[in-house]
Amino acid sequence: MKLKGAFLMVIMTIATILSGCEPLLVLDPKGPQAERQAQDIMLSIGIMSFIVIAVFVALIIILFKYRASKQSPDYEPPEIEGHPWLEAILFGIPILIVAYLSFVSVQSNYIVEATPQKYEDQEPLVIYASSSNWKWHFSYPEQDIETVNYLYIPEDRPLEFKLYSFGPITSFWIPQLGGQKYAMADMVTTLHLAADHPGEMVGRNANFSGKGFAENTFNVTAMTQADFDEWVEEVHETAEPLTEGKFEELLEPGHLGQMTFKGTHLEFSPAPEHDHAPSAKEDEEHFTDDSSDHSNH
Q: Are 192 and 114 in contact (CB under 8 A)?
């Protein structure tokens, strides 16, 4: 009776905990990059579950088949040499699993680093996303708009984020659109995303950057292109211009609400000139310059 009561208590506790859990955002993708990553996660979970189940089944079979018998205490089993097929299975299957997951991971890495699939022929919306303690600044050079701690994006259009930081290293992450990427002080990293559906999402800094890290979040709203264009017009009609003095105030450590400005800080405080991944042409020019310097010496 006590055992039955304890079992029911465990079941009720698990049910209560699970009912209060929020859905995993990484498994609720709203864009092609996040969808690819969600597929890889589910694939990994499926393979690992199969392995765990197979191991437990084998354990149960071995425990019953080779449990202690009524043999004499002095009994010694015969010498048995290694079994080639058993050893091939024990070593071969893990190697195949690791090789397959490695292939999938490398393939997915190239896919999520490139322009999202089915958007290759469209011009991306370029947004400079810069962080400071503990806020996010989003600059739209094409629209000549800057926002703080919130992001408006059009659906069904590729997004090209230029990431950098005015302070410590941070990590830009919108779980429902794609994986995280670091933002650093002296270089720009590029992140390609896209939203397939309109709706509200949450982004955050996924890298610890001081005492205000926990609230270093921002809201993301995906909308139709018509609604996005309407928002741009409204900002130009109602928002205050962003001045250099105001921007210096925004960079002071602390938390702020959502803010909107006409103009961007890129006019008086441009992004770093160094890219995280220089092009092949830049590499060739750099090599040529180095060779010339060495020859002059």
A: yes
* 3-state class percentages of the chain: helix first, strand second, coil last, to nearest 5: 45, 20, 35
Angstrom distance (rounded) from CA 205 to CA 147: 16
Q: Is 222 helix (H, G, I), strand (E, B) or coil?
A: strand
- Comparing CA positions, the residue from 53, 30, 29, 55 lying closest to residue 41 is 29
165 and 189 Cβ atoms separated by less than 8 Å? no
- Higher-confidence position of 282 and 237: 237
Q: From CA 182, how far away is CA 169, in angstroms rounded?
A: 7
**Whole-prediction pTM:** 0.79
Structure confidence by residue, pLDDT tens digits, 174-215:
999 999 999 999 899 999 999 999 999 999 999 998 888 899
CATH number of 125-267: 2.60.40.420
DSSP string, 80-95: ----HHHHHHHHHHHH
